[in-house]
Write a structure and sequence with these properties.
The complex is a heterodimer of chains A (about 130) and B (about 350). By secondary structure, chain A is α+β, with helices and mostly antiparallel strands. Chain A is built from four helices and nine strands; from the N terminus they run βββαβββββααβα. In chain A, strand 6 and strand 7 form a beta hairpin. With about 350 residues, chain B is an alpha+beta fold. In chain B, a hairpin with a 2-residue loop joins strand 1 and strand 2. The chains are: A alpha+beta (about 130), B alpha+beta (about 350).
Chain lengths: ~130, ~350
């Protein structure tokens, strides 16, 4: 479910690093919590993102959610197909539903993120809290 | 069931099952089943029952026949809403009010405080559960579980009868803009009734629907929601609920204030709008003119059947005509929208 080569944030973004660039999206947990996604607002190519700062918005029928940059960097691509077909995020959140690609500004920031096992443990802890 | 739950007024309520869009479309094209057991019921009995109902509500309950239901407002002395409700006339001396969950206890206390008529007022919510079966296939589905002739039950009429061998108040009412029924019955039968209805409607495309679809369906149908379009600061005139406000019925709470407002004219009024820019207005977004706030969005959402982003808002009466271009403040945008006639959606007859 959660690819082992990705890193994850506590706000439910994933990042897949390839050399000095990375792809960013929201996790399967996030798309499921949001429900039917109907609108996505993404930054333009060239925008500079600071780690942990909001860079865009994902909206479902019932909710508006900001998405946060897992690490700092410059946007080198945005997933334009989401403008017409935002539901791709529901269908394939870890693949075709990616949001942006960035040029990493400070790769050392990656070490502060969770790996897949830690993220799944984090989700398990959250669902335990919700049960009480 | 795989429902996503949310806490609401002390109830654990399902927000969605298969997804709001799928549930919404099912209710428009086939049928949807809603657990609305959180809704409140207040019963008023005795020779003074009608007098009490007439005193506290703005619609004319004297016009009701036995077995008829009426949408109405529970009024403050200022002519604003304590709540909105359905008044069911069970007999000349017995009325059942269906009120909003969050207001049930305060409504009950308010009604008791106005009871100068010796009526018996009962906070009866715990004796009822409520399921809503809504959509063009609702009558076909419900008929499988009851010998009551549903063809003979017209819109906003109700009757008592057995559904799945359980005694029910069967009302042809709803909050979706579709044909449909609301069933009131004893809570111990909730689960069996829920399952029996789902089973009876399987072949017709009936799906369970959560509060999420209930909200998008009522918004698309241009219906008010307490706490959004109406509250204790808004009047029936402002909310375009003239049709439930009968000044000629005799005195009632708020009548003088409503008469005054009718004579003076309205400063603001509720409108429907559709977004022309590809952005979604949400509750509480400002309505802007020349970058100044002139109103507030009361409800805003994508409308899954009409496939538009819709909303309702209070705006100055001078800028309320259909076709008027407005702006809605959405994050850093001043998004374009156009005022349109309400309701957005009307079911085909």
């Amino acid at each position: 479910m959660y690819p082992s080569e990705y890193r994850y944030t506590r706000e439910h973004e994933w990042i897949k690093v390839e050399g000095s660039t990375a792809t960013v999206g929201i996790t399967d947990y996030a798309q499921h919590e949001l429900g039917d996604i109907v609108y996505v607002e993404l930054p333009k190519v060239g925008a500079r993102l600071a780690a942990s700062q909001p860079f865009g918005t994902v909206e479902s029928v019932k909710a508006v959610s900001e998405v946060y940059a897992p690490v700092s960097g410059e946007v080198i691509a945005a997933n334009d197909t989401l403008a017409q077909s935002p539901e791709i995020i529901n269908k394939d959140p870890h693949g075709a539903g990616w949001l942006i690609r960035i040029q990493l500004a400070n790769p050392a920031e990656l070490s502060g993120l969770m790996d897949a096992a830690a993220y799944q443990a984090y989700l398990a802890e959250k669902s335990k809290e919700a049960a009480f | 069931m795989g429902a996503k739950m949310v806490s609401f007024g002390g109830w654990e309520m399902p927000v969605e099952y298969s997804g709001i869009i799928a549930e919404h479309l099912a209710a428009r094209t086939a049928a949807g089943l809603f657990d609305v057991s959180h809704m409140g019921e207040i019963e008023i009995r005795g020779p003074g029952a009608l007098d009490l109902v007439q005193k506290i509500t703005c619609n004319d309950a004297a016009r009701l026949a036995v077995g008829q239901a009426q949408y109405s407002g529970l009024m403050t002395a200022q002519g604003t809403f304590v709540d909105d409700l359905l008044v069911h006339k069970i007999s000349d001396t017995h009325y059942l009010l269906c009120v909003n969950a969050a207001n049930q206890d305060s409504d009950y206390e308010y009604i008791c405080s106005q009871n100068a008529f010796g009526a018996q007022v009962e906070n009866a919510g715990s004796r009822y559960t409520q399921l809503a079966l809504q959509g063009p296939r609702a009558a076909t589905i419900l008929q499988r579980l009851t010998s009551v002739s549903l063809d003979a039950l017209r819109y906003y009429r109700f009757t008592f009868g057995q559904v799945n061998a359980v005694h029910c108040l069967i009302a042809r009412t709803g909050y979706t803009g579709e044909d449909g029924f609301e069933l009131y019955f004893s809570p111990e039968h909730s689960e069996a009734m829920w399952n029996a209805l789902l089973e009876a409607g399987r072949a017709e495309g009936l799906v369970p629907c959560g509060l999420g679809a209930r909200n998008t369906l009522r918004l698309e149908a241009g219906m008010c929601l307490y706490g959004h379009e109406i509250d204790n600061t808004t009047t029936p005139w402002e909310a375009r609920l003239d049709w439930i406000c009968k000044l000629d019925k005799g005195d009632f709470l708020g009548r003088a204030a409503l008469l005054r407002q009718q004579q003076q004219g309205l400063e603001r009024i509720l409108v429907g709008f559709e977004m022309t820019d590809a952005l979604i207005a949400r509750d509480n977004c400002p309505v802007l003119a020349n970058s100044k706030t002139i109103g507030r969005v009361t409800s805003g959402s994508p409308a899954p059947f009409l496939k538009k982003n819709l909303g309702m808002a209070y705006v100055p009466t001078a800028t309320s005509a259909p076709g008027t271009e407005i702006r809605v403040g959405i994050r850093r945008h001043q998004a374009r929208a156009r005022i349109v006639e309400l309701p957005f959606y009307k079911r085909p007859k």
